[in-house]
Amino acid sequence: MSASPPALRLDSITKRFGRGERAVPALTDVTLEVAPGERLVVLGATGAGKTTLLRVIAGLETPDRGRIELDGRDAAALAPAERDVALVFQNFSLYPHLTVRENLAFPLRAPGRALAAAEIARRVDEAGELLRITRLLDRPAKNLSGGEMQRVAIGRAIVRRPRLFLLDEPLTNLDAKLRESLRLELVKLFRALSVPVVYVTHDQAEALSMADRIVVLSEGRVLQSGTPREIYLAPASPAVARQLGQPAINLIELERRGATWCARDGTPLLPIDAAAARGVADASAALLGVRPEAGRIAAEARASPLRGRVELVEECGPHRVVAVHALGQTLRFAVGNDRSFSPGDAVAIELPPERLLLWPADSSAR
Amino acid sequence: MSAHLELERLEKTYPDGTRAVKGIDFAAAAGEFIVLLGPSGCGKTTTLRMTAGLELPTGGAIRLAGVDVSQQRPSRRDVGFVFQFYALYPHLTVAQNLAFPLECVGTPRAARDAAVADLAHRLELGPLLSRKPRELSGGDQQRVALGRAMIRRPQIWLMDEPLGTLDADRRLAMCEFLRVQQLEAKVTTLYVTHDQEEAMRLADRIVVMHDGKIEQVGAPMAVYDEPASLFVAHFVGSPGMNFLEGSLARGSDGWRFVARAAADRAAAPAAALELPLPPALARAPLREGPATLGIRPEFVRLAAAGPLRATVVLDEYLGASRCLHLDTPCGPLVARVAPEAGAAIGATVALDFSPAHVRLFDPESGARLR
Questions:
Q1: How far is B350 from chain A, CA to nearest CA, in Å?
Q2: Is pLDDT of A254 > 90?
Q3: For chain B, which terminal residue's Cβ has fewer other Cβ atoms within 10 angstroms, N or C?
Q4: CB A244 within 8 A of CB A232
């Protein structure tokens, strides 16, 4: 155990909106920690409670229950301004008629900060350099592109030197290409500043690539937390498995038939004693998860009992995604772009046991 | 009837002098799915709107099934325009929502009912037909909305980032849905997006636009593998192609590429990267002098011993693969490696490129050397 307390600790945070019968739970028993300097990404679909979570941490919402600690101290009594956290939103709001420099200096001129003009100038220049917007400093904010505006918005958070960054889908409104390059710049920036970060997104690629640790949030509850690899390779439930990976994981319902796990139509897929099936040894039905890159498909006749017909082939650059109709559903597999398939092709499918995930059947809703 | 579309020297100059589209030519065959791909401001949306008749060209022609429609009103053109924002009518049932576009053009009742039944069957919406939109899940609402946009089969569908507002995971599923519907209906489609991944997945052919002009027209893999310019090589692919600056030199044993040290390096590396070019490339009409070498991240290999040393700057885990961001004496590079092949930040690695996957460009014009 390190001597320093976590930068942020949430203990059983519950927040409901509305009263009595009509109360809607936004967060239920959310517990999480962010270590000093750690990047925590909260991944969830629209409506999962991600923004409410950030607002609770920032002090803009008061939780109904639970405890928030910042650097080991109870934050309940701290007003938003006293928490010393910086919140960056999806819709970057700058003062359009002020220059970039004035926009960056603005938070530092807030009453109560009492920073010397020289110190303000120094911090603004430093933020300009870190974000590579030095050449823009004297332009009016309204003349900037979307990507430049978002950089300035992040700069406004940096100059304050907060103890914690909270970012709410900061890249969502940008072009795909820009999103990709800003994603990298942000990680470099956070590493350079070594400030703890809570970053909220619905984009699984952002979560996997940016996070030290991911928390998967769904309907206000934490489904799983762990490193990107842990969550991708060993998702605790089908719901978590579905949140990560593109295209989404293939899910197949299984039934126990004698010594074999079979698909609903009786196709044998996996021996009962396979290592992957240990967690469902006592179940009579199970759900099988196969990542698109884990399955193998081949046009030639193979010994595999699992066969299907190609419905659609989609190009993805280094690989292509082949949608195959098999077992009465559509299964998707990623293959190298040196392998070609056409709609209508008959294919044999192999599911390597060491790459399979199994959950008890009743876990499908979780 | 699905129609072929021809754009000929099409231009749009606004009254303030802005040249949004600078004379573009391309043709789509009947039933083809064409994606106009490019960054904000490249002229793709203006091109689409001119095809729809929402804006009039200031030069050139638009022919639909051989007929010049460029000065016709939108209502005279048999086009179906699908916008990004498609709300369902809340007071109508799913069936009524689906039938609405057909009612608008006066399709008889029986034909409407048949079209709705057919669509509902294909979209697996049968059980939902009598429901109101608010009783549907978000995903089902999107399927109904896209289905409604596609129920009429005009000469051409024009789509302006129809999936733009969806969450990333929904977008992928809807891409597939859209493509399956289009393949089935065989309606010529012109689709605008800034998302290269969407373009790759959907298109029969991609038209890459930049600064009001066409950079390249080709099948997704042709555009990816054989980019016609630096712009295409960078824009298509996630991340885009890597580039190294240097020069071409002819030796006794054929052509070589000699990489230059990056501008921000104090001194040239002890051993500059020298890469012999494969015979196929060396057959191109090459000239000695400045050149840019391009290589896709998946063809940058970590080797026990390679011609280029690199330091790992960032390690992006992506589930099915991993991108290592590297700093080399010749500038930054990205290598796409297996997900198990993680590397510590700060570690030194050696790199090798397979010469067969090297692409060469003219650094001045950006054009491909081949």
A1: 22
A2: yes
A3: N
A4: yes
Helix then strand count (H, E) for chain A reads 9, 20
pLDDT (0 to 100) of residue B272: 64
Six-digit token string for B202? 């959907």
CATH of residue A330's domain is: 2.40.50.140
| Sheet containing B19-28, strands listed edge to edge, beginning at the edge strand earlier in sequence | B19-28, B5-13, B59-64, B67-68
For residues B299-314, give the mean pLDDT: 88
Could you tell me the CA-to-CA distances from B229 to A240, B100, B366 in Å, in that order? 41, 45, 5
Q: How far apart are the first and last CA of chain A?
A: 32
Indicate the number of domains in chain B. Answer: 2
pTM of structure: 0.89
Q: How far is CA A15 from the centre of its chain?
A: 21
pLDDT in tens, A159-178: 988 999 999 998 887 788 88
For residue range A119-135, list pLDDT tens digits in order: 999 999 988 888 888 99
CATH number at residue A183: 3.40.50.300
ipTM summary value: 0.86
Instruction: Report the pLDDT value the prediction gives residue B314, as an integer from 0 to 100.
Output: 93
Instruction: For strands A164-168 and A85-88, give the pairing.
Output: parallel
Cross-chain Cβ contact B336/A311 below 8 Å: no
Beta partners for A170? none
Q: Give kind and range of the element (H or E) at residue B146.
A: helix B138-149
Return the structure tokens found at A12. 């059983």
Residue with the bigger pLDDT between A289 and B305: it is A289
CATH number at residue B56: 3.40.50.300
Tell me the CB-side half-sphere exposure of residue B159, using CA atoms within 13 A: 29
Report the pLDDT value the prediction gives residue A301, as an integer from 0 to 100.
64
Residue A283 has pLDDT above 60, yes or no: yes
Do residue A317 and residue B195 have CB atoms under 8 angstroms apart? Answer: no
B59 strand-pairing partners: B11
Across all residues in chain A, what is the average pLDDT? 90
Q: With an 8 Å Cβ cutoff, is B184 touching chain A? A: no
Q: Are B281 and B355 in contact (CB under 8 A)?
A: yes
**pLDDT classification of A365: cutoffs 50, 70, 90:** very low
**Strands across the sheet with A306-315, in order?**
A296-298, A346-350, A306-315, A319-326, A329-336
Distance of alpha carbon A340 from the chain centroid: 32
For residue A354, give its domain range: 250-360
Residue A199 shares a structural domain with residue A69 = yes
Q: What does the pLDDT read at residue B41?
A: 87
Q: Helix B94-104 vs helix B138-149: angle between axes, to the nearest 10 degrees?
A: 20
Enter the tokens of residue B323: 């991108």
Across the interface, of B169, B224, B314, the residue whose CB is closest to A248 is: B169
Burial of B16 (0-12, 13-18, 19+ CB in 10 A): exposed
Reply yes or no on whether the pLDDT at B85 is more than 60: no
pLDDT tens, residue by residue, B143-180: 888 888 888 889 999 998 888 767 777 788 888 888 98
Q: Is B15 on the interface with A (CB under 8 A)?
A: no
Say if residue A94 is in the same domain as residue A225: yes
A232, A304, A353 from A289: Cα distances, Å = 12, 18, 11
- For residue B270, pLDDT beyond 60: no
Contact between chains at B179 and A146 (C-beta distance less than 8 A): no
Chain B residues near residue A189 by CB distance under 8 angstroms: none
Of residues B68 and A185, more confidence is placed in B68
Residue A349 sits at φ, ψ, to 5 deg, of: -115, 130
In DSSP terms, which residues pair with A313 in a beta bridge? A322
Helical residues (DSSP H) of chain A, grouped into ranges: 50-58, 80-83, 100-105, 117-130, 146-158, 176-193, 204-210, 228-233, 238-243
Find the mean pLDDT for residues B102-112.
91
